């Protein structure tokens, strides 16, 4: 049984794999993937997650809308969320954090940075 569950939300299967590869270094972690915000909400509705990594730019529902909906749901509002995006402008970061994201990582991702953020948000030393 995993200690922590992580949901990775990105429309790019390759990016999901890269993020999963980084966080698989953590012991006792189960990783699930979603292809966009709507797919993520379906998975979040029936299961508990300890951390969400999400892209901003995705079809159907973007990551900022997902952050907003998770934060407005009492059952999920405390779940840590890290944005991973190509949008590197300060206003994008500030908007994501204002909506309730806990951290913001700019692509191209570095596995060490993803791992550091995962450890911090999961409370793993």
TrEMBL record:
Entry-annotated residues carrying 4-aspartylphosphate: 55
Keywords of the record: Phosphoprotein
Gene3D superfamilies: 3.40.50.2300
Pfam families linked to this entry: Response_reg
Response regulatory domain span: 5-122
Gene Ontology BP term (one): phosphorelay signal transduction system
Protein name, per record: Chemotaxis protein CheY
Source species of the chain: Geobacter pickeringii
């Amino acid at each position: 049984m995993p200690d922590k569950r992580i949901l990775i939300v990105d429309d790019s299967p390759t990016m999901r794999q890269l993020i999963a590869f980084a966080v698989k270094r953590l012991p006792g972690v189960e990783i699930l993937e979603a292809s966009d915000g709507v797919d993520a909400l379906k998975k979040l509705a029936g299961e508990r997650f300890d951390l969400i990594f999400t892209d901003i730019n995705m079809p159907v529902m973007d990551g900022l809308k997902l952050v907003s909906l998770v934060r407005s749901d009492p059952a999920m509002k405390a779940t840590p969320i890290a944005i991973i995006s190509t949008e590197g402008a300060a206003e994008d970061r500030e908007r994501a954090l204002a909506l309730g994201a806990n951290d913001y990582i700019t692509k191209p991702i570095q596995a060490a940075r993803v791992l550091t953020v995962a450890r911090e948000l999961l409370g793993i030393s």
